[in-house]
């Protein structure tokens, strides 16, 4: 999507903040300096700052100026904040927060999906699962299908708040899937776990659906911890999804 001057300014400043250019509790440069650096008017800078205040990245006031907020105050459900973190690079803290969030949200969402999923919901999730299986067997884009699988289940919960959350949660989930995909036989080993979740939803069995997704999340948690302990380079989310090689 092509952004206007305001959008580009928000994007530049947001990326700089999340990337640590100004540091925690750092002070943004004066308006004239930002205007010269970005070749924009004071009005554009001020509107961009308002947008970043709304996202929790900045705080303004007559005695504090315009300062960077600590990361725990950022709106981690804002897709822009997630995108800027992806550009800056994934961190162990980010990934562990993700695992905590998955453990809270997905089991409850799977219970609702098992109770409420329509035939159309299940068809869409089946298509995603078939894409995952095909990527494992023939090579291809496993991550995109895995993401569609999980977002399809969230949608099947028929909860408007979970649906709103899915935009940001999707970006978070991709981080986990990229890591699992890069581990030897990670996607192949997780296929049966995904199938168990889907079968429980098809059977409208909430207890089984919750149990199955907890098992799936536990496997993803182990994958992430293995990568973090090994100090391997974390994947970038700024490039197309990883593709599996044909078996």
Question: What does it look like?
Answer:
This protein has helices at 5-18, 31-38, 42-54, 79-88, 92-116, 119-138, 142-156, 160-182, 186-202, 206-230, and strands at 58-61, 65-68. The chain folds into two domains: 5-73, Arc Repressor Mutant, subunit A (Orthogonal Bundle); 90-230, GntR ligand-binding domain-like (Four Helix Bundle (Hemerythrin (Met), subunit A)). Strands 1-2 form a two-stranded antiparallel ribbon. By secondary structure, the protein is mainly alpha-helical. α2 (31-38) crosses α3 (42-54), α5 (92-116) packs antiparallel against α10 and α6 (119-138) runs antiparallel to α7. 34% of the residues are buried.
Summarize the structure.
The protein starts with a helix and ends in a 17-residue tail after the last helix. The protein has helices at residues 5-18, 31-38, 42-54, 79-88, 92-116, 119-138, 142-156, 160-182, 186-202, 206-230, and strands at 58-61, 65-68.
Structure characteristics:
single chain, mainly alpha, Arc Repressor Mutant, subunit A, Four Helix Bundle (Hemerythrin (Met), subunit A), 2 domains, two-stranded antiparallel sheet, 10 helices, 69% helix
């Amino acid at each position: 999507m092509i952004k206007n001057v305001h959008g580009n300014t928000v994007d530049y400043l947001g990326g700089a903040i999340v990337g640590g250019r100004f540091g925690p509790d750092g002070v943004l440069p004066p308006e004239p300096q930002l205007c010269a650096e970005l070749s924009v008017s004071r009005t554009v800078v001020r509107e961009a700052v308002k947008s970043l205040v709304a996202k929790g990245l900045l705080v303004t006031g007559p005695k504090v100026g315009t300062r960077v907020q600590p990361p725990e105050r950022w709106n981690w459900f804002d897709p822009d904040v997630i995108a800027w973190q992806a550009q800056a690079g994934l961190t162990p803290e980010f990934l562990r927060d993700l695992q905590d969030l998955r453990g809270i949200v997905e089991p409850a969402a799977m219970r609702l999906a098992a109770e409420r999923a329509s035939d159309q919901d299940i068809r869409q999730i089946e298509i995603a699962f078939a894409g995952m299986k095909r990527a494992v067997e023939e090579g291809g884009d496993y991550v995109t299908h895995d993401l569609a699988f999980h977002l399809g289940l969230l949608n099947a919960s028929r909860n408007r708040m979970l649906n709103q959350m899915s935009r940001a949660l999707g970006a978070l989930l991709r981080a986990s899937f990229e890591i699992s995909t890069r581990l030897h036989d990670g996607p192949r080993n997780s296929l049966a776990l995904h199938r168990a979740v889907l079968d429980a939803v098809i059977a409208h069995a909430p207890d089984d659906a919750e149990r199955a997704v907890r098992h799936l999340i536990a496997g993803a948690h182990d994958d992430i911890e293995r990568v973090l302990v090994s100090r391997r380079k974390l994947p970038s989310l700024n490039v197309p999804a990883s593709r599996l090689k044909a078996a």
